[in-house]
Amino acid sequence: MNSxxxxxxxxxxxxxxxxxxxxxxxxxxxxxxxLVTRLxxxxxxxxxxxxxxxxxxxxxxxxxxxxxxxxxxxxxxxxLSGSISAISQVLEQNREGLPMPFSFLQSQTSQILPALxxxxxxQGDAGIVLARNPMDLAILACHQAGSAxxxxxxxxxxxPGRSAWLRLVSCPLPSAAFTSAASFEEMVxxxxxxxxxxxxxxxxAPAQQLP
Length: 211
Prior knowledge:
Elements: E1 5-11, H1 31-39, H2 47-63, E2 74-78, H3 84-96, H4 101-106, H5 112-120, E3 125-129, H6 135-144, E4 150-156, E5 162-171, E6 179-180, H7 184-187, E7 194-197, E8 202-205
Parallel strand pairs: 2-3, 2-4
Antiparallel strand pairs: 1-5, 1-7, 4-5, 6-8, 7-8
């Protein structure tokens, strides 16, 4: 079992709980325009799911105050529904003949990874995980991550949309008390600052109390 402890150093500003009544949890209406401003160019031919992933990942790294992602970071993305809009477009085109090449590529969830690698100027250990329980992504990544930590994303394009990301780096064991995370909501809550692997789950802790 991985014995490292990780500190959450950055999180995307929206998208963790898009079904909440609070607009603070929702993606901004102009997220695509914000992405263009952040990148300095308009993404082309990568599909909505990959654009959402870029928006959340870059927002998260800005919060972590990281300009570049270390090469040995583990990058994992979870998407249950995948590229719904692109898949629908391919099915429609298939009724009339062969689907267009870029439509087919956009329907592949794996296209998120090269889009992220290009935008971050990064290459390393990256993967797409399909999991019904969003906590499974965290457990898998904690088993696989090293001292450089993780960049984790949960991305869905179906309304209301989600692009929720966390950046975690290894740290000394804090004096804060750890408890088992009972839910994804607890694991990513604003007052959760540390993760570590328990015997069968993720254990979490709040920020250390100053003396």
